[in-house]
Design a protein that fits this description.
Layout (H helix, E strand, L loop, with lengths): L3 H5 L2 H12 L5 H8 L3 H13 L19 E8 L5 H12 L4 E6 L6 E7 L2 H12 L5 E6 L17
Antiparallel strand pairs: 1-3, 1-4, 2-3
Amino acid sequence: MDSIVNKVLDEIDLQILDILQKEGQVSNTEIASRVKLSPPATHARVKRLDNEGYISQRVSILNQEKLGFDLLSFIFISTNLHQAEQLEVLESALESMEEVLEFHLLTGEHDYLLKVMNKDRKELERFIRKLNKLGITRIQTSLSLREIKYSTVLPIWGQE
């Protein structure tokens, strides 16, 4: 890997980050054992990586089906809003909606892409009604029939 990351992070840092992104609940002692450092040295590295912003947050990923969330959709949004203040209001409103798991500004045919999780079609319909109240000119919804791959793991190893 010949990126700026390699100039700042050494191999042990990358090993630690890889372990943490794959197994967020692993103990400091276990990480230390795997990277062949003492627990205090490992803890200091994890703290430094955290303080320097390499670790954005630590979370538990919940089982959506067990919690009754059965409808994942991708919603493309187009708008005729062009003034920065109007776009900020729209973006703030969309960002605050709990159903929105991801929110992206796009290039191309659509302005935004939302990844939205609802329990069922009725919840999705209510969500789309909320969108319609925001002055959006076009909404295109695609439902996910089956998730083939899902990962939060960045490919920090083996990039040449």
